[in-house]
Amino acid sequence: MASRILLLSVWVAAASGSLEVVNQWNHLQFDFPPDPVLLEKFQPENTVPTGLEIGWDRLYIGIPRLRAGVPATLAWVPRSLPPGVSPVLQAYPDWSWHTAGRGDINCTGLVSVYRTRADRCNRLWVLDSGVFTSLDDFRRVCPPKILIFDMATDRLVRSVYFPRELLRPSSLLTNLVLDDTRAPNPHLAATCDHIFAYISDTVTPGIIVYDSRRDNAWRVTHASMYPDPNLGEIDITGEKFTLMDGVVGLAHSPAQGLLYYQPLATDRLFSVSTAVLSAGPLAEGADLPVNLVGRKSSQGLGVTVDPRDDTIIFSPMTETAIVAWNPITNSHRLLAQDAEKLQFCAEVRWAERDNGAVWALSSRFQKFFLRTISKHEINIRIVRVVDGAYVSLQPHVLRRACNARSTPPTY
Fold it and tell me: What's the rounded Cα separation, in Å, for the pair 307 and 384?
């Protein structure tokens, strides 16, 4: 224990000043339309973001309806603002899509969005879970869907609905990554006409694979996608809460042809070949060929890959840090550590639209969850790692592990 505390103190000294706070809020505030019902129903203490996408001129923020009182489930703020400001959020694409915030459920609109992803053709893929108040009573009010918007015009260009047989009564679709490397020729990749989306079902754990060219989808499952009952309790700066979430963290390595994934309630990181995922449904009785990539020092949610060298970047929650591990060279780096600014990083992103900078969306989610949030403190931050502040990291933070191909880990 003493050596661990010493190591963390070195992290703090080495990583001081390595984070730029892009935006921060005590509570999120919105640019409301003249709608008294929307204002009356707004409960800022229940409004916590989980999704971040970095556009060329905007930041897109997913705000799922975990509890009642969320006015808009998808919003944006400009990227051109000075660092550290607390801008009001603009509903995306506009308020007409967010009637659920006033209690009017419209299944063609947006119900509850955890995360979004932009493709290379400047389209925003919005994953809508269709679940209302998922932390309290888990009300399925609409089928889950993907809505794809043109980011230049903010107009809807495509809607994707999933076959009923792929979903379960408690399905909660929370995350997606886009893969345009499976196109049979460069032209299709350049026009985004052949994209695969890999989508996490967190509560009834599995991954849904969507083939956009054929408008077809299938589901794969594996024991590694389930939560570890021994790791459901999360400790963040001494505050503990239990959240038994299955697979939610997703990252794609184009060069390695791998999808990395992790449940929230685990200290393990897994991978599966995207060639296997994109080939179609598994034959009956076939096992998904999963590899155990490594073990982390604590649970994590956000994970991403730097495609320039296939480094995996993630945030161990108890350590309130952002770290990097290259599975090819087995090198480890501490990118940032801050007990105040890096609590519960729901997103860690390698930002193509920011020259490959690492961003994170952090919140005091544990306080939202436990209903101990204070409006007098900063509770939500979007941060950016300042390049050049990286230090070497001891390999215990992510330990290499043997392959677990076709064999689930022991829980």
Answer: 18
258-314 residue pLDDT tens: 999 999 999 999 999 999 999 999 998 899 999 999 999 999 999 999 999 999 999
Token digits for 113? Answer: 């969005």
Query: Is-contact 273 291, C-beta < 8 A?
Result: no
For residues 167-176, give the mean pLDDT.
97
Other Cβ atoms closer than 10 A to 78: 13
H helix or E strand, kind and range, residue 276:
helix 274-278
Neighbouring-strand partners of residue 261: 250, 270
Give residue for tokens 């034959």. Answer: 283
- Strand 290-296 and strand 268-273: the pairing is antiparallel
Q: Residue 349, exposed/middle/buried by CB under 10 A (0-12, 13-18, 19+)? A: buried
What are 232's two structure tokens?
């459901």
Q: Residue 73 — very low, low, confident or very high, per pLDDT cuts 50/70/90?
A: very high
Please provide the CATH number assigned to the domain covering 18-385. Answer: 2.120.10.30
> For tokens 């999963």, what's the residue?
290
Residues with Cβ within 8 Å of residue 90, at least 6 apart in sequence: 30, 31, 75, 76, 77
| CB 361, CB 352: distance < 8 Å | no
Structure tokens at 178: 């886009």
